[in-house]
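Today's session is about reading a structure prediction critically. Students often jump straight to the picture, but the first step is always the sequence itself: look for stretches that repeat, for charged clusters, for runs of hydrophobic residues. Only then move on to the predicted structure, which in these notes is written as discrete structure tokens rather than atom positions. Here is the chain we will use throughout the hour.
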Amino acid sequence: MRARGWLVAALLALGCGGRSEPVISCDPVGAARPLCGFHNPEDLVALPGGTSLLVSEYGGLSGEHPGAIARLDLASEARTVLYRGGDGGDVRTSWGDPACPGAPKEFAPHGIDLVRRDDGALALLAVNHAGRESIEYFEVEDGGARLAWRGCVVAPERGWWNEVVATSDGGFYASQMLPKRSGVGQLVELFRAAVLHRAEGYAMRWSPGAGFHPVPGTEVVFANGLALSPDGRSLYVNSSLGDGLRRVSLASGEVEAQVALPALDNLAWGSDGMLYAASLTAPLLEVQACNDLARGACPARFEIVRVDPRTLATEVLYRGGGAPMGGGTVGLRVGDELFIGSFAGDRVLRVALKQ
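Below is the predicted structure for this chain, in token form.
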């Protein structure tokens, strides 16, 4: 997602464009059918069995709006809110950092990920920007009908996260977009990334007992989407402003492969074993205009790109923009369908793929 209040110089350097009218209609277009009634469904993960999705309803990079974790039942297409800030939690069974100060009173989620823990529990981890910069831990109960808060890890000084990849040992990888500062300092950091292309984003690892460590080889311009290889040996890292995806060896820090793709956002593993990357192809000013969206959906152009995890060969699977939805930030393949979320809008897009 794009930060609000970018420097005018950075915007002009990266693209031009004006405000566009939001998409209000909730009618399908071809094979794409919008499921309306959501709030900024920025990231999606599939629950085991593939019958429901968990949805991160994004609240902004500074946590300026309240958010939630919701469930989308694929059979009924019903939305159910599972967690909002202030819902409390059981600190007696805390996961994450023992120094976690307790359940969040405010909650504005961003990236989310599911993992089957070594102890057998199913955990959802969520980046949170409201009240504190943190990773919040939840236990998924009753087949996905309930979330129980179980703990947190608060970011170190200057931590500003986008995506999280959960690990079975109770740890995670998180994408550090930029150093987090206040006021003019943040604008300077944004300028350094957007105009000077300073690679000050990276992935960091947190593990119980060992704390935080940067991941060598992941230094990019505005780190965004992450994915861990099934064998746990490589980390895939998206660079939003460096226009590329790279695969990094976790043992050596070597960049094993990379591919140029514009304005990347989230990464997601599909049910077919392929990676799916969201690419915001509209001019940056047009994308930024969606931050002030009051209703409907962002119209900004985007692509969902299928990526071979071995070779990083790419294929554009879906192009969107305008009706029925633009501003796509995640593409999640479940069977023969593609589910697409957005950082700004009231809908998840459900796309039937060609056989």
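Discussion point for the tutorial: The mean pLDDT is 91.
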